[in-house]
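User: structure tokens for this one?
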Amino acid sequence: MIYNKVPKIFFRADGNEKIGLGHITRSSALASTINSDYDCILATRCKISHVLEAISYIYKHIVQLPETDFNSEATRASDIFENADLIILDGYPFDAGYQQELLKQEFDFFSIDDIHASPFFSRIIINHGGGIRPFDYKARPATQFYLGPSYSLLRKPFLDAAKKRRNKVINKNCFV
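Assistant:
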């Protein structure tokens, strides 16, 4: 009998009333597109129960992380991301130090980013913002970039709406 292991992808994102829910929303949008082929697990500090309930169908499991400094969290990565085939980071605290610790523990990881504020050690960087170029990043030479609006991570209702053809303006008094 041949056993095919389903790859395990951890999504590391937080959200709350202070920082908003964008990181969790983007990560969940990506997870929802791949969760039929991968075991997607969310590791988060988010404690908003109705948010976690609303996205629970996307993930095989949601790991609730304690409030601690991010450097300590990174040193415990092997406990948090046990048997991870890939970690996808989405959030500002996952800086160069956090990423270097993941490298030291030999994790493979990608980053979803929108501010390119610190050096990156990720194998792949996704940034949906317009006008961003690989040269805007301090990254490893082998880093692959997926930049621009065509790499926007959208939830299913928005993807479905984008596929529909619209022939008329619904409300001419609308400003977007």
